[in-house]
Design a protein that fits this description.
mainly alpha; PX Domain; 3 strands; disordered N terminus; transport; PX_dom; Sorting nexin-6; protein transport; phosphatidylinositol binding
Length: 369
Amino acid sequence: MMEEVKDVSPTLSVHGHNIKVTEALKDGDTLTFLVVSQKLSGTGEYHVARTYDDFEWLQQHLFSQEDVPGIQGVIFPPLPAKAQVNASAKVLKQLGFLALEEWQPYCKALEAFLRQIAAHSILSKNKAVEIFLTSSDPPGRQRIKKNIFNRLSQAVEGMRKEGHKDVDDFFQTERDHNLLLTGCTKTAAEKFLDVVLTEQKIAVACGHFSAALHLCVEPGEDPDKQAFSKACVKLSEVFDSMKKNMTSVAENNLNTLGLGLDLESRYQEAEKEMLFRRTCKLVELEAARKNAEKAKPVKKAAMEEVKKAAETEFEHICGVAKQEIAHFHGVRVELLRQSLVEWCEKQLLTAKENADQFNQHLQAFRGLA
């Protein structure tokens, strides 16, 4: 199965920059995502339905290009954790922002995943990408082998290799920075998620209080009761406006900086995995060199060949990794900047609308006096 889609094609037949995941449809316990992409020919669009198994199928094909030189130096676009209908508290915590708003943020994350793959100079050439975006048949039903990338991350000796001293100052510095940023970004995303969830709770509370105030309205001709009832109705309208405002603030936080921090956090983890794969190859190379030095004459030539192969592979990985890191830093800064700008713009607009609304309420209350 894997060999069928390993051939590379020069370009995709769709525009990679505006691939869309438009909605998530519930089918029992399964979520199906509608992926829409525009044909390069300009003659229409591809509409394909994909489950998470299909996304995993694509990711595994990208991981499995072991015939591509330096592939282990690629920072693979991160696929979000699996979304589940009626998910457990543990899964919801893992998904964070992506589990909110009827899976719309999750669709955005899948969209970013596909766009990053389509824009990648190496990954976009894999035929599996074209099949995923254009084939009417869901590819994820095919059985695929798990490859070395999965095993590496779960290796028993992982912790030992992760702390292995690097021979290249560039990569040692990058590993140190990544370790720091991974922790900081994850914490920032978690804290910001707490803010959004609190804002949603405040919005719900304002809605409940707005409804409760109507219970204070009393019929009758008594002027005091009529004045009190009018005040309750107006105050109810104020709290309903507060509910709508807080809901908008939470949505703005979620759809701008929230998604930005989530993507940043998952990309830092993706870089960490790439750096770890390279460190593992460094350990293998050092072992090959030692074996070649200690080899007996009868095995010397064979051990030298192993060493040369390891050196060549490691050089390819380092070359790709340096390009990937440079690109990664530029992209992550731009994406985070973009999410911050959108965050500020949306919250300023919401604040202005809210101020106008409260001004109207203030004038109404003055009219009651």
